Amino acid sequence: MYRTQASAFTGTPTASAHRAYPATAPARAAVPSGHLRTLARLLLVRPAVTAATVPALTALAVGLWGLDRGSMWRDESATFQVARRSLPEISQLSGSADAVHGVYYVLMHFVLQVHPGEVMLRLPSVLAAAVTAGLVAMIGTRLARARVGLWAGLLYAVTPATGLFATEGRSYALVCAGAAAATLLLLRAVELGRTRDWCRYGAVVGCTAYLHEFAALLLAAHAVTLVVSWRRIDGTLWRAWTVAAAAALTALLPLISLTAGQSGQVAWLEAPGIDSVEELLRTFAGPSPLVVTVVLLLICAALNAPLPRRGRISLGALALPLTLVPPALLLAVAQTTPLYHRRYVLFALAGVPLLAAAGGERCAAVVRGLLQAGQPPHRAAAALTGVAAIAAACLWQLPEHRVNASAAGRPDDLAAVARVAARELGPGDPVLFLPSESRRVALTYPAGFAGTQDLALRTAPAASGTLYGTETGPIELRRRLANLDRVWVLAEPRVTAASWNPRSATEAAKLSVVNEQFVLRGEFKERSGVLRMYVRRAPERPVDWPAGKPVPVVDPVLEVHDRNRARERDQGATGWAGPPGSGAPQGSGGAPGARERLELPPLHPHGTG
Predict the structure, then answer these.
(1) Of 450, 449, 442, 441, nearest in space to 412 by CA
(2) CA 515, 433, 505 angle in degrees (round to 5)?
(3) How many helices (H) and strands (E) would you count in the chain?
(4) Could you read off the pLDDT of 404-426 as tens digits, one per residue?
(5) Using CB atoms within 10 A of its CB, is residue 385 exposed (0-12), middle (13-18) or buried (19+)?
(6) CA 53, CA 153: separation in Å to the nearest integer?
(7) pTM (whole model) above 0.85
(8) Contact between 520 and 534 (Cβ < 8 Å)
(9) CA pair distance 477, 233, nearest whole angstrom
């Protein structure tokens, strides 16, 4: 089936054949030597190498453009602060939260030891995007030809979504690289049928799923590919794939058991609708309507006239399930259990440029047929024409690339909030973070909060095994606030909306004390947060209060709590607990009741108004 180098010769070389070689020496000497000769060989003699190298370098250039944009957003902030913890602390966190990213955090722990900064945080993603572009080109070359591989790799490299996730300190670009590598190994294992190739395939799928467990949906896409190619897939190959897939899923069970109890972290997700499908289409094909239209037309051309099969699996049988199956499965599951986000299925993006490149090859064949009457074009003309068209698409979407390379292309700009804090806060200033997740600004950019007091913090994030630390109870928080004349509040924009409700008694206490006992004196807004300075309201002077004597600050909730505790102590001393409903506190430690939490007004620029 496969020809070796020896089979290319019809006979044994003779002495006369060897004597004929010196006659061609002058022609060979004219070939450039050194680096020029190596470059010429790569570009012309080895088109498969060129097809993989050019897209990889293009993706690398796109990624380096937005590598150091001067700010992290909330997800990158989580990576940055968790990866700098010790390995036992990362393991402790994974037991309670973010287990799906645990392996990625361990990897980034070693990366950030080189230099803890934004460049090193995003560099693995940039390199992974470059590798993925090269792997997509290799898949296209293996299934069709080098020209198709070159186009597919370049299309992947210049897609705005590739540049967006290539410059993020998260695991999704690495997942894409693992999925592309597993797909290439699948093709190799199907063609060669060797046990070691199937072992490599299963190992890569398992490792990729440990970077993000939804990468296991890749197995469903590969299963559909094998089903579509059933005429060329025998029972031996099916058994080998089943064993490799089962081994990968079995190895994933510990991670699944951990993340099953942490689904509350994605409770903010909603059931996807038609708008989610449209967003996914723009992510895969490009946000520009013109580019989306052209890509869809090329895909239709590829599906209408499939390229000739070069092995057991055709390009369409591989690329179409890769594009459709993982997103479709996750969208279907998310209708009952909201788990869908476009970045969770980003690895399926690789199928779109493969199909579009196949459609481009079909269009090139049509043009070549029209030119047969005259002089046929050079074999490189079609490849260069396709490259020029891809470059034009990249230039057309250049504004999108420019936004992705800046902090404006991310949901949050934590550095801007930190700069405001550094300008306004001073040593010893008390700060409340509302909600507690807004503490991420201080954890990511601690210089802006140097010397300040975190009033609500009880246990630091690393020591508590949480992302943002644990906060003190509402009564203790009120005691800390009772002796303060002013307090700073760093709030997320959503907190200022009247519809926002606190999720804990401590956050309810923050709202209550600030609204009832303080008045706004300064506000500094940024896109990702607002910093406010509150000063204590002047307490009302009783009618019979002596002139010149300061009126003490009274917190009615603290007074009630202290009276109840005193009553409990007195009753405990006499051995009587009082009748039910007599007002003795029930439950835990004086947290405010449901009535207090429900009647709290939202945090609002004019206090209680």
Answers:
(1) 441
(2) 65
(3) 27, 7
(4) 888 888 989 999 999 999 999 99
(5) middle
(6) 9
(7) no
(8) yes
(9) 67
